[in-house]
Amino acid sequence: MSFTTSLTNHFLIAMPGLQDPNFSRTVAYVCEHTEQGAMGIVINRPMDIRLGEMLDQLDIESNDRRVLEAAVYLGGPVQPERGFVLHSAAERFDSTLGITSEISITTSRDVLEAIADGRGPDHRLIALGYAGWGGGQLEQEISANAWLSGPANEEILFRVPAGARWQAAANLLGVDMNLMSGQAGHA
Length: 187
Fold this sequence. Notes:
The structure is a single chain. The chain starts with 9 loop residues before the first strand and ends in a 15-residue tail after the last helix. The protein has a single domain, classed as VC0467-like (3-Layer(aba) Sandwich). It has 6 helices and 10 strands. By secondary structure, the protein is α+β, with helices and mostly antiparallel strands. Strands 1, 2, 3, 4, 5, 6, 7, 8, 9 and 10 form a 10-stranded mixed beta sheet that branches. The longest helix has 8 residues, at 109-116.
């Protein structure tokens, strides 16, 4: 499959047959997709740690209970020690990459300091690690029925509860994942 359309700012929705434990029943937000490959953040895998624990490790103080209790997500299996913050694009930080006019991703410490101080982005998702695909790999996986793809939606990205995001993203495409078989069909 040749590279035809960028899936940047799209959701990748794992098909029921995708058994890879890193991606089973996940939704990934594609931050970048070029001929060289793709990078995304899994948005529906909250980890057992809270943002307060992460801030403690970085010696960043916060007294805001909502900040301290915020979920940290497992963004993917690549570089799980590295932090990523998907957020509304109104704010810019030291290493912010604009994905769309509404959504950015930041990897610098200053975004976490701003969040801890209560002046961070209103809408945000904090993740450790990311999902990466080499050139042509994502296109092959889509062709093999591993993923559905469709335009991303800020409501699902930032406001829908994590446990409902997989089905909510599929609903954008008119797909009920409960009716999907784990088997791929080929005529």
